């Protein structure tokens, strides 16, 4: 959750970020995972003390139930103090490896339009914006996302 708050500071309203709690986030994710009919893979990166320092989640693309060869990176976060250390790149490589094993030939992901750091990260990894956009509401503020794709 601290990764989410750090990544979206200045993009998502402060009121929304300040209202986030670990407990609420855990409950929301458990409900989502329990109700999902799609298989999801969760990957974690740990440090030498076995503390989680990064997390990624992937599965089948949610936008088209018929295309089983398209995967989606649902989330990728790294402990804010370790951004730029290579953990995110390592997690993304593991995501691609798992995606290929799961039979995906194409990966999609959504990035907040104003999150230039994340956009550069994914572009360096071979992702390209494909023109699709969507908007989510955060405490009454419309925040846009752009979709990226990469062939595996």
Description:
The chain has 152 residues and is an alpha+beta fold. It has one domain (2-151): Aminopeptidase (3-Layer(aba) Sandwich). It is 33% helix and 36% strand. The chain has helices spanning 2-8, 14-18, 22-35, 87-101, 116-124, and strands at residues 40-46, 52-60, 70-78, 106-112, 128-138, 141-151. Strands 1-2-3-4-6-5 form a six-stranded mixed β-sheet, sandwiched between helices. Strand 3 (70-78), helix 4 (87-101) and strand 4 form a beta-alpha-beta unit. The longest helix has 15 residues, at 87-101. The chain is globular, with a radius of gyration of 15 Å. The two termini are 29 Å apart. 21% of the residues are buried.
**Approximate helicity band:** 25-40%
CATH topology type: Aminopeptidase
Tally of helical runs? 5
| Gap from first CA to last CA | 29 Å
The portion of residues forming beta strands comes to: 35-45%
Q: Tell me the overall shape.
A: globular
**Cα-atom radius of gyration:** 15 Å
CATH class reads Alpha Beta
Structural class: alpha+beta
Instruction: Label the CATH architecture.
Output: 3-Layer(aba) Sandwich
The major β-sheet equals: 6 strands, mixed
